[in-house]
Amino acid sequence: MTRLAEATPADRSAVIALWQAAGLTRPWNDSAADFDRALAGATSTILLLRDGEALLGTAMVGEDGHRGWVYYLAVAAAVRGQGHGRALMAAAESWLRARGCPKLQLMVREGNDAAIGFYRALGLAPQPVVTLGRFLH
Q: Residue 11 in 3-state DSSP?
């Protein structure tokens, strides 16, 4: 039986291992620090989908006072295609709606057509914006 829960510090290793296995981590991003910041923040968390104690998927969710954001949506390879990603996105939307967020946004790396197709099937659409950034460390 699957269940949704919010991550705790005890979930850190398993969550990061799933992110790595799903190809979501990059050398320039400190996924452990991302995990810690999400749990420490008053306006963010990491949602987990479990079957018993087995971690099936994650979604980092947060709001910045203007928009809601989803990061690190990951589903274990062995259970993909069973609706778990869809369930996590629905949970993320519910979490954001409960906080009054008017819009959900997320970023997908260029060339990740499978992810773009997944999000389009959920009703998300490309936005007419360009994302700019700079590392602060």
A: helix
- pTM for the full model? 0.94
DSSP 56-113: EEEEEEEE-SS-EEEEEEEE-GGGTTSSHHHHHHHHHHHHHHHTT-S-EEE---TT-H
- pLDDT for residue 9: 98
The helix (run of H) or strand (run of E) holding residue 114 is helix 113-121
Give per-residue pLDDT as tens, 106-121.
999 999 999 999 999 9
Amino acid of residue 96: L
- The candidate with the shortest Cα–Cα distance to 57, out of 92, 10, 27, is 92
Measured in residues, the chain has a length of: 137
Question: Residue 136: which region, alpha, beta or left (left: phi > 0; alpha: psi -120 to 50)?
Answer: alpha
The dihedral built from the CA positions of residue 25, 115, 78 and 59, taken in this order, carries a sign that is positive
